């Protein structure tokens, strides 16, 4: 079976500005793929080409086995994809249900309107005018409009912007449910926690190029990065009293290590022998956000520096 999305050597320029340069990646059927990148990195241009809104200069693009740049295949492709864009124009004086029912009429095999209202948590608001909805509620309606056509592939562009934490987690579960039901999802987001929670694979684009690709846990060698142990220095002790090199800042001592098990054992043994309490003790590795910042801005501080101790 071919990939749901296959991109090879994609290029797009605007005059002397090279927005996309030799971009290649695939999205497999039934997975959530996150395309991450800062503003101006080429992310939006890439998505617009995949969605059929913009012509490419070079490269090969296949979306559900079709070329989005081929007008002859355009109608069939639009029938099979769903879009949740950052700004969707809807009639403000229609009710929520009327809006969804009208859009359902554009598709040959739409999902049931009331089913979709329940799916996105808008059943109780189905008779409300669109203009009376809050920002988060309007974003739920955007999601509903994206899935009403029962798409095989769903493009989600910043889907939870404006959501409170509870609404965001509900939306995450909705996205997972869609994936589990067989929908392929291509996601963009500036929330690294969202990418960590949802994506099966991620790719980071910067300067018009893909700079790294992998799972959220292994991106750019994240799973092999050193760990960071942090704690409050016990009263009456100095950093130089510790059994290894450490630094102090923000009221906490930081120890960087490639062997957190051994280092933590030495640290707790040192504290027990002295009757000292290690307040606020934590052990962590670089987050997805740390790795993303390192990939897109080499000057940004990493979550766990390269230097290590044993």
TrEMBL record:
A matching Pfam family: ABC_tran
Keywords assigned by UniProt, alphabetized: Antibiotic resistance, ATP-binding, Cell membrane, Membrane, Nucleotide-binding, Translocase, Transport
Protein name: ABC-2 type transport system ATP-binding protein
Compartments (UniProt record): Cell membrane
InterPro entries: AAA+_ATPase, ABC_transporter-like_ATP-bd, ABC_transporter-like_CS, ABC_transporter_ATP-binding, P-loop_NTPase
A GO CC annotation given for this chain: plasma membrane
Protein topology in the membrane: Peripheral membrane protein
Domain ABC transporter intervals: 5-232
UniProt GO MF annotations: ATP binding; ATP hydrolysis activity
Stored PROSITE patterns: ABC_TRANSPORTER_1 (PS00211), ABC_TRANSPORTER_2 (PS50893)
GO biological process, one term: response to antibiotic
């Amino acid at each position: 079976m071919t990939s749901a999305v296959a991109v090879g050597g994609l290029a797009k320029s605007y005059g002397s500005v090279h927005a996309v340069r030799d971009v290649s990646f695939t999205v497999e059927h039934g997975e959530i793929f996150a395309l991450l990148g800062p503003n101006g990195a080429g992310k939006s241009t890439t998505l617009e080409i995949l969605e059929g809104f913009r012509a490419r200069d070079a490269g090969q693009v296949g979306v559900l086995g079709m070329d989005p740049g081929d007008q002859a295949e355009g109608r069939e492709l639009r029938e099979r994809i769903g879009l949740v864009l950052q700004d969707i124009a809807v009639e403000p004086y229609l009710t929520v249900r009327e809006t969804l029912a009208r859009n359902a009429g554009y598709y040959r095999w739409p999902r049931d309107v009331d089913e979709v209202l329940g799916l996105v948590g808008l059943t109780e608001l189905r008779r409300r005018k669109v203009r009376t909805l809050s920002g988060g509620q309007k974003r739920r309606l955007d999601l509903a409009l994206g899935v009403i056509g029962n798409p095989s592939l769903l493009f989600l562009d910043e889907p939870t912007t404006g959501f409170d934490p509870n609404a965001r987690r509900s939306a995450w579960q909705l996205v997972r449910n869609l994936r589990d039901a067989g929908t392929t999802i291509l996601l963009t987001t500036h929330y690294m926690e969202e990418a960590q929670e949802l994506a099966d694979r991620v790719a980071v684009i910067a300067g018009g190029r893909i700079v790294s690709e992998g799972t959220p846990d292994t991106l750019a060698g994240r799973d092999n990065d050193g760990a960071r142990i942090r704690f409050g220095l016990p009263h009456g002790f100095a950093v130089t009293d510790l059994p290894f090199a450490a630094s102090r800042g923000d009221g906490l001592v930081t120890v960087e290590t490639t062997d957190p098990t051994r280092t933590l054992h030495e640290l707790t043994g040192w504290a027990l022998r002295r009757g000292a309490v290690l307040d606020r003790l934590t052990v962590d590795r670089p987050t997805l956000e740390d790795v993303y910042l390192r990939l897109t801005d080499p000057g940004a501080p990493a979550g766990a520096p390269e230097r290590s101790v044993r």
